[in-house]
Automatic annotation (TrEMBL):
Belongs to the bacterial solute-binding protein 8 family. Residues 18-253 form the Fe/B12 periplasmic-binding domain. Gene3D superfamilies: Nitrogenase molybdenum iron protein domain (3.40.50.1980). Pfam families: Peripla_BP_2. PROSITE patterns: FE_B12_PBP (PS50983). The keyword Lipoprotein does not apply. This is Helical backbone metal receptor. Keywords: Receptor, Signal.
Length: 253
């Protein structure tokens, strides 16, 4: 895992003017907050929906030559998603790379973004303060839930994950929150044996639908949710709380 740059002593970022983001959530945050600075993004950077910047391939395996051709003065990467060899090559070519940590909680994610925008542009985006206010409290636990994010094989959200904390703040306890793995891969039989109150099926990274997913959990109530609301951190958090709450209320109705 890559060392994280947005922890420890402050590192001046010198007002970046050409940023390539390899992290979809942060791409959206930069595009909304300092749009003129965003020079490139990955194919998976889908928001804002009208984002029109050069693409550099996937988040996990970006085309480093394309990144370098954009002449960035800052590349934003993630310690969990990006490869050390890509970061090393960018730095060897004189590019400043800011490596973020995969956030385990909502406050951790927002603090990281506050640090990035404060050090980089001396900026406190309005959406950031709104998100901090919206997500400050944690609701009393009401239900337990299972949260698959992939099938064939089944992969579920486990401990120390952003999605687990998002749901906890809405009063939903993840039945795999104490698992040893952050993203366990239990058998379908093991998943059903957990008997959660609710199965939460997001539309990313796997696109669960009413016809694809619920049939695997007979007798268990389910709800389809916006995966971006569940796993993205940034401007989407302003709408995520109300959006997820509506979906969860519908699933419990």
């Amino acid at each position: 895992m890559l060392p994280v740059d947005d922890l420890g002593e402050p590192v001046p970022l010198d007002q970046p003017r050409r940023v390539v983001s390899l992290v979809p959530s942060i791409t959206e945050a930069v595009a909304v907050s300092v749009p003129d600075a965003l020079a490139g993004a990955t194919d998976y950077c889908t928001h804002p929906s009208d984002l029109d910047v050069p693409r550099v391939g996937g988040s996990k395996y970006p085309d480093v030559d394309k990144v370098l051709s954009l002449k960035p003065d800052l590349v934003i990467a993630n310690s969990e998603e990006n490869r050390a060899e890509d970061v090393d090559r960018l730095r060897a070519n004189g590019v400043n790379v800011w490596v973020t940590e995969a956030p385990k909680t909502v406050p951790m994610a927002l603090a990281s973004l506050r640090r990035l925008f404060g050090l980089g542009w001396d900026l406190e985006p309005e959406w950031l303060t709104k998100a901090e206010d919206l997500w400050r409290e944690t609701a009393p636990a009401k239900l337990t839930a299972l949260i698959p994010v992939w099938r064939r094989p089944w992969v579920v959200v486990g401990r120390d994950t952003f999605a687990t904390d998002v749901l906890r703040r809405l009063g939903i306890e993840n039945v795999y929150a104490s698992d040893e793995e952050r993203y366990p891969r239990p058998s379908l039989e093991q998943l059903n044996d957990r008997r959660p109150d609710l199965v939460i099926l997001p539309d990313e990274p796997y696109v669960f639908t009413h016809e694809d997913g619920p049939e695997s959990f007979p007798g268990l109530p389910y709800v389809l949710v916006n995966g971006r609301h569940l796993t993205w951190y940034g401007p989407s958090l302003v709408d995520a709380k109300a959006g997820l709450q509506r979906a969860l209320d519908y699933g419990q109705g």
